[in-house]
Model the fold of this input.
Amino acid sequence: MASLKFSVSVDTYDSNKFHFSANPSFPIINSFARVKPINLSRLDAESWDIPDSNPVAENIKTPWSKDSGGLESSNYRNDIWRRFQGVKRVNRKDPNSKLRSARIDNGPEEKIYVKHFDGELDMNEYGMVSELSVERCNAILKDLERSSDSKTMRFFEWMRENGKLKGNVGAYNLALRVLGRRGDWDAAETMIQEMSGDSNCQVDFRVYNTLIYSCYKQGHVVLGTKWLRLMLENGVQPNVATFGMLMSLYQKDWNVAEAEFAFSQMRSFGITCQSAHSAMITIYTRMSLFDKAEEVIDFIQEDKVTLNSENWLVLLNAYSQQGKLQEAERVLLSMQNSGFSPNIVAYNMLITGYGKSSNMDAAQSIFRNLQSVGLEPDESTYRSMIEGWGRAENYKEAEWYYHKLKGLGFKPNSSNLYTMIHLQAKYADEEDAARTLDDMKKMGCQYSSVLGTLLQAYERAGRIDRVPLILKGSFYEHVLVNQTSCSVLVMAYVKHCLVDDAIKVLQEKHWKDIIFEDNLYHLVICSCKELGHLENAVKIYNQMPNKKPNLHIMCTMIDIYSTLGRFSEAENLYLELKSSEISLDMITPISPISFSLSSLLFSLSLSLSLLSFFLSFFLSF
Done:
């Protein structure tokens, strides 16, 4: 297979810093043998020494089978069924029967059958069960743990009462699994104290890993940290599975502080965990803490971590995200020299890195050479090319990759749609933007979110006047029936002096809510006033369908009319307000006073009644 060549100048690279040499000998790290990555789905099996083989399930025999041993004796058969008196009979040949019968046979000395149903578990039905060995009790407990939490805990309590838990770490682990699933963390902590106390069990990492695994599966970051700190307080040394689960948990939550604590503890114990190093680098990269990410990369050399495929990709991404493309290329070459064939994910990371650095010539070169290394562009490849050309403000190239993405049956992500709308607001016509809006709707984007993105893009481009030409059909219908979207659009129009478009939306709206409508008109009028567009405020007020007196709107309009010097209209509004059933408070008459005293004295429009009102108002203080 041909390899993709990169122009890398080794001479200009600082050898004092940690880097990946293009030399196949790779002197920094001694060995790069393939190592199977830690699979977190197997961590529970690695965390406690309970055999996966089930002696109960492996020896399932029906009481009526010929090779069932002791059933040759009719007395024994009668004894078996005597234990289940009162239990409803079940047809033995019925495949839907919920009766399960298991034979536990660890030796020729003792043979006993254990039966349990979907109903209540009655320990008196087990006959000689109190004489069972600890090993057999553990096998029963393990079988119950797989089917019923409540039965598991009842049988566990019975084992405690009959002295079967002394030094029995395996039984406690099974019980802790149940408590972890239930989220009964207080009971779990009490059980650990019991283990190290009355039961005389040696509590090691297996016990805590059981609970940490439950936290990992359920996403409980705080509780996972609690069990780690409790381990350390009690002098229990974690193992590689402990840190693998915790670091993956912190990566999901992007919890820098807890991840740093766990990572430092791991290194202090001299434990190396490939997935933990990857998680720490990924967290730092995601949070744009690139210097710290490179410190962890240095630790990889210091801790002599053997890199797997995931580690290589994490290193490549860390350098690509911060625009250090020379280092990223070195990592790619070192990855190849170590026997790992770079996949499409690796090249996508490089394309993303070049896109963020606005070096689209290099990104385009990688894209065109993918087939020469036996790879085909995937969904992420096209998405990265769209984003890169979007940053470069090249609408033509971005549009080509956008159509290619859709033509191959892939879907653009939200970032691609956002990029296309912003490019179209600057460089395209309304039809292209309308098609992108349709794509947004097909992907299930919320109308309100799409509207916000559209208005933001066209506002930045200084072309907000083109929005009314784009909002058509079902999208415009949504605006008319949704109060929030209607308000957002009207306010955007008013802000940019598109008063006629704002009035049209208000007149064509389909919702009816008088209180909300009055508040919206008041907000629009106040916005016009604050922006200095007083004539627009008057125009909107005159178009109001509901002229029922509104204290806040009329006071604002009295102030606007007064500022415009239209005192007769201000006086008329005041008299109308005074004659209405609305009770005037102390704030109400202040609006007419807002115009200057000189205007009051010299304006011929000021009537004696209004002047009389001002005088009486001042004298009242």
The longest strand covers residues 100-104.
